[in-house]
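User: I'm writing a tutorial on reading structure tokens. Could you give me a worked example: one chain, its sequence, then its tokens, then a sentence or two explaining what the tokens reveal?
Assistant: Sure. Here is the example chain.
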Amino acid sequence: MGWGGALLGGLVVVAASVLGFAWVPNLLINHTFVRTAPRVRDPLVLLWIVVVFVLDSWLLVGLQRFGGRGEARG
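And here are its predicted structure tokens:
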């Protein structure tokens, strides 16, 4: 993988992380603030963070599998 592919992959991971860890939880908190109690809202946001962490980790590992000459490494 060249510099261009690595840069693009890094930007994808950063964008997914910012959206998943900052922007969407902010929307969740703002949307559910007046509609639910904290005992419901907080686990919902925590569940979202866990799901995003797993998906972000999966994305990062998937991008790391393609290196060198572009073929999948075992």
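What the tokens reveal: The chain has a mean pLDDT of 84. The helical segments are 3-32, 38-65.
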